[in-house]
Amino acid sequence: MAATLAGLRIGVVGGDLRVxxxxxxxxxxxxxxYGVGVERLPSILDILHxxxxxxxxxxxxxxxxxxxxxxxxxxxxxxxxxxxxxxGDYSAPGLLVLSGVAGQKLRELARLYAWTLVEIGDDDExxxxxxxxxxxxxxxxxxxxxxxxxxxxxAMVLGLGRCGTILAHLLKNMGAETYxxxxxxSDLARAVALGFIKVPEAExxxxxxxxxxxxxxxxxxIVGRDLLQAANPKVTIVDIASKPGGIDYVAAAxxxxxxxxxxxxPGKCVPESAGQILGAVLPRLIVENIAKER
Length: 294
Hints:
Elements lengths: L8 E5 L5 H10 L3 E5 L10 E3 L2 H7 L2 E3 L10 E2 L8 E2 L10 E4 L4 H10 L2 E4 L4 H23 L7 E5 L3 H12 L3 E5 L3 H9 L3 E3 L4 H5 L4 E4 L8 H6 L5 E4 L9 H6 L3 E4 L3 H5 L1 H19 L5
């Protein structure tokens, strides 16, 4: 049974199309919702539209987009006339602020305002559920970029975490010859057990050069100039790691290798499903982390 949100005031600040599909879940559980930078949301949604100052002052929690804010403190929205700036006098000790990821700027602001910042992208339940729309979105993007089927392609997944595992399964089930690179021996053993072709670090360059498709899930530089130089000139690389990704994009451009950083795929490709996932997980995260005394 979902956690009740009765009596809680929750601010929704910006966001993409997923907002449309998680707001009804929060309302159904009794939350009172405030909206900042979402003034173009359908009026059927029972939200009090107001500024950030009032929202911070009156709410128990804020929900930011999965990408948080940019380096200037701006929060983007599909439903606002302009981005919402987090710069100002928004001190609120103990205010729970939920964001998918938190970059340096958001962390700085959270410390300045004494917010309780929670990166919900680290939550196991959300990460596993989100891995499915992320993997499907990555495959869809690869097909759009190549105009080819996945079937009979040589595809490599870099990293065998939650998303990498789902993505490798999807590629294999679609008929790709599926390779998995990992540094840990346990991950390589798991790749073999799951029916993938393991790629240890010593064999990465040689194997990379034969790939038609490469999907990176590792949030650290892993595909540098040397690998790009060795790559098939027609390779397509889809980077689904959080910004700045794991590819040397300057080298990729110079070498004319097709490499695309693609964050936020669930919200772009399947916002209804991705929003419903958030609607199922957010109530628990709010109740677990909220400061009840606010």
